[in-house]
Automatic annotation (TrEMBL):
Binding-site list for ATP: G97, E98, P99, G100, V101, G102, K103, S104
Pfam family, one: ChlI
Protein name stated in the entry: DNA repair protein RadA
Domain remarks: The middle region has homology to RecA with ATPase motifs including the RadA KNRFG motif, while the C-terminus is homologous to Lon protease.
Region (Lon-protease-like): 353-490
Family that this chain belongs to: Belongs to the RecA family. RadA subfamily.
Regions of compositional bias (Polar residues) in chain numbering: 444-464
GO biological process: recombinational repair
UniProt short sequence motif RadA KNRFG motif, positions renumbered to this chain: 254-258
Disordered as annotated region, ranges: 442-490
Coiled-coil stretches: none
Gene: radA
């Protein structure tokens, strides 16, 4: 008796397969998406070798020409910096970001710059009508006769538009809103996203056509859809920015044709998005006089060194639990620095509220900002200000050491270019010596630092040696007496 071939069941959302029907998918946890599949499991299939043509036979790597895969600039220098020099023919780029950050505005600028070079650009919008896209193009001055617009949500129609226009660049906004009729699932499902991306990537490779895809993100900031989407594309870029600020950053999370440590800076304006080639002054305050509680550090974002001003405020409180409020810096990192200051330098902070923030809304994740954060907190606590020409960078360990950081020479060069003459780096290996150099302006000789009051002009670093107390005589012990009360008498 022949064995019965088991029927395969497949999830229409993520493609997960099972030998029996279940109500809930074991992969994406979706209900009611597991249906019977026409594919039969357990059947051995043999694949015959195909006959290759002369042009498809493998060639030695030394004889392959790279002229067809060279970069061509988009006209936006900051975007080209992130891509490694520009677009590569046949490359597929995925640009993701939160809603309203400016993805469509940036790509419309890219399309307009390419159209100005007499290149045919196909901009497919699956979220807006062509009239809505034109209104934004008029506002950003991105009108060109070679910029072709289409509002399509069907994959076959998008491929038909590519065949009809024969463009040099294709932009699809977005990959989660385009669906294929051959798959029985809603647009944006993992199966649809994988099918749409695979079809567009196949067209890009066959025609040496650069394709830019816009991707949505989830609540936790990751790209919506299957993880395989990031593996299929050649470049993954992330568009970051806060809605309350005009500054935007483009970072490359994956790049097969260039580095992944470059950052592009942009600024949202009323007429669109503008490049910021030198963002040095965006994260510095414009105060005319030195103020206590401020210190400038040189943060490294990719290959770009940017000075960032850190501000701190220390206020005495009577609450049992002092507040620790941070903005732009890691709160756990600040808590660790407060413990180091109180333990290694004897700075009393247990009864004070501490507020630490960055200027310009920038987010600091570089540990080289530890020294500047500690100096700002100490400056706010002692009411001693650091000069405008002072900058500091270095990582602080729990042992009170100032550890070296990467690209110190690049940070020093950028700080000196901006007029910072007093630069405190990891050359001072101990935090006590670094604080003495910063506040006393004296060379660190390793001598013991005596306590001082803030009014004297020197930093109040307390000595850890406790004062000696005269020995006290121990009181004679008295025997325990039980006192009889009226209740005991009753």
């Amino acid at each position: 008796m022949a064995s019965r071939t088991p029927t395969a069941y497949r999830c229409t959302e993520c493609g997960w397969q099972s030998v029996k029907w279940v109500g809930r998918c074991g992969e994406c946890q979706a209900w009611g998406t597991v249906v019977s599949s026409a594919e039969n499991e357990g059947i051995a299939r043999t694949v015959k070798a195909a006959k290759l043509s002369e042009t498809r036979i493998a060639q030695p790597i030394t004889e392959i020409s790279t002229e067809a895969a060279s970069h061509w600039a988009t006209g936006i220098d900051e975007f080209d910096r992130v891509l490694g020099g520009g677009l590569v023919p046949g490359a597929t780029i995925l640009l993701s970001g939160e809603p309203g950050v400016g993805k469509s505005t940036l790509l419309l600028e890219v399309a307009a710059k390419a159209a100005e070079e007499h290149l045919r650009v196909l901009y497919v919008s699956a979220e807006e009508s062509v009239s809505q896209v034109k209104l934004r193009a008029e506002r950003t001055h991105s009108l060109s006769p070679t910029l072709m617009l289409a509002a399509e949500t069907d994959l076959s129609t998008v491929l038909g538009q590519i065949d009809a226009v024969q463009p040099h660049l294709v932009i699809v906004d977005s990959v989660q809103t385009v669906a294929s009729n051959s798959i029985d699932s809603a647009a944006g499902s993992p199966t649809q996203v994988r099918e749409v991306a695979s079809a567009l990537i196949r067209v890009a490779k066959e025609r040496s056509l650069p394709v830019i895809l816009v991707g949505h993100v989830t609540k936790d900031g990751s790209i919506a859809g299957p993880r395989v989407l990031e593996h299929l594309v050649d470049v993954v870029c992330q568009f970051e920015g806060d809605r309350h600020t005009s500054l935007r950053f483009v970072r490359a999370l994956k790049n097969r044709y260039g580095p992944t440590d470059e950052v592009g800076c942009f600024e949202m304006t009323a007429e669109g998005i503008a490049e910021v080639p030198d963002p040095s002054g965006l994260f510095l305050s414009r105060s005319g006089e030195a103020v206590s509680g401020t210190c400038v550090t040189v943060a490294l974002d990719g290959r770009r060194a940017m000075p960032v001003e850190i501000q701190a405020l220390v206020v005495k409180t009577t609450a049992p639990n002092p507040r620790r409020v941070t903005n732009g810096v890691d709160g756990s990192r600040v808590a660790m620095l407060l413990a180091v200051l109180e333990r290694r330098l004897n700075i009393p902070l247990g009864d004070r509220d501490v507020y630490v923030s960055t200027v310009g809304g920038v987010r600091l994740v570089d540990p080289s900002a530890d020294l500047a954060i500690a100096l700002a907190i100490a400056s706010a606590n002692s009411d001693l200000s650091l000069p405008h020409t002072f900058a500091a960078f270095g990582e602080i360990s729990l042992a009170g050491e100032v550890r070296p950081v990467a690209s110190s020479s690049l940070r020093v060069t950028e700080a000196r270019r901006l007029g910072f003459t007093d630069i405190l780096g990891p050359d001072e290996t101990q935090i006590r010596r670094a604080f003495r150099v910063a506040f006393d302006k004296q060379p660190a000789t390793g001598s013991r630092v005596s306590p001082a009051h803030p009014s004297t002009g020197s930093f109040p670093v307390q000595s850890r040696t406790p004062p000696t107390k005269p020995p006290q005589k121990k009181a004679p012990s008295t025997p325990l007496r039980l006192v009889e009360t009226d209740r005991d008498r009753d």
